[in-house]
Amino acid sequence: MYKRILFALDLEGVNRVAGEPYTGLSRDTADYEIAIHQAALEINAAAGALFDLGVERIDLWDNHGGGHNIIPREIDSRIHLLDPDRSRPRMYFADDRTYDCICFFGYHAMEGTLGGVLAHTMNSKQIQYYKLNGQYIGEVDMDAYIAASHGIPTCFFAAGDITCAQAARAVPGIVTVTTKKEISRNEAEFRNNNELFVELRREIIRAVQGDMPIRPLSFPATVEKSFKRVEDAAAYLARLRSQGIFSNHPNDDLLGKDAHSVTAEVNNIAEFIYCI
Question: In this structure, what is the dihedral angle of CA atoms 29, 84, 157, 171, given to the nearest 10 degrees?
Answer without folding.
Answer: 130
